Amino acid sequence: MGTPQIVQIIRRLRLQPIVTTAPALAGLVTRLATQPRVGLDTEFLRERTYRPQLCLLQLATPAEAVCVDPLALGELGALAQLLAAPAVLKVMHASRQDLEVLLPVAGLTRPVFDTQVAASLTGLPAQVGYADAVRRLLGKELAKSHTRTDWSRRPLSPEQIAYALDDVRYLLPLASQLHEQLQRLGRLEWLDEELAALEDVRTLTLEPEDAWQRLKGLRDLDPGRERLARALAAWRERCALKHDRPRGWILDDAALREVIMQVPRTPQALAQIAAMPPGVVKRRGAQLLDCVAAAQIPDPAPPLPGRPRPDPLKAALVSKLGTIVKAVGRELGLVPEVLATRRDLEQLADGRRDGAVLRGWRRRVLGELLLAAL
Q1: What is the CATH classification number for the domain harbouring 94?
Q2: Residues of the chain where predicted confidence (pLDDT) is lower than 70
Q3: What is the 3-state composition of the chain as percent helix, strand, coil, each rounded to the nearest 5?
Q4: Coil, strand or helix: which one is 59?
Q5: Distance between CA 121 and CA 109 in Å, rounded?
Q6: How far apart are CA 186 and CA 176, in angstroms?
Q7: How high is the pLDDT of residue 277?
Q8: Cβ 136 vs Cβ 202: under 8 Å
Q9: What letter does residue 295 receive in the DSSP assignment?
């Protein structure tokens, strides 16, 4: 059944497939709690706040599909009990962002069956989209007319609700088909290992002290600049959290990198950074300079790290390891990136032995072969 037909049914029967009151939510939770599996998705807005704003939840069983309006409800305690219920498997697609969004308002959602993760273990691309997976495995085409909807605006139209419900309507049959395929391939244990990471709350949150690890374009820093990178990233994270604004609104990545590289020690030097907005210098310049001072970088600062020269021996080794990954991927019918990324191989070539490719099922099917080739 396509979206236009769903809209017509909603209008004809005057259905209200969106929960906006506490009694209606309690009734929904009571019904869903009897189900072994529930499809789950969210719609959120993250352009103007530090944490994404949860705007809509969609839930589905074989008998119904319904939206929950957190903006109207305000409090989701009843739903939080369902999302944490160990007897109800929550079926989601590409769940990590949804789990991050749900965590502060409803706690940790578990257990989860992620259809994107499951699909990748059957041979589909590592980041296969929901609509693509539905088309490939179920032969259904999903509408794309509301991909840019502002889900925080009310009221939602019947077309918007129908579009949102399509995002969960096919999750349960999709999960059933993927489970059958993985069982036939003998890979359910692989899936269990992959999904276990989704129940680790540490993977869904970012501590300010660890924020610097997400910065790009900063490699081989001297010790002083590394201290500065840690301090600036942590400061920005705390500031964004305090004011509930995107971290880029506090200080964007380009300006942050230039502070690390140039090490300005005066307001004048800070203002001369091309990527530094004047407003940031005025409002937060003193805080930025405090971070610089706390890093205790010698004056003058050490020379900037030069562009690393290509290492032909390392490149040859990574290429050799990549050939092994491709061969194993062909044998197993898996996209190579599902087995190991190029970064995984570069870390192996650098002597690292703590990567994902050397843990669990990946070590058994691939990791030992890569170690033998080093």
Answers
A1: 3.30.420.10
A2: 1-16, 145-147
A3: 60, 10, 35
A4: strand
A5: 22
A6: 15
A7: 95
A8: no
A9: T
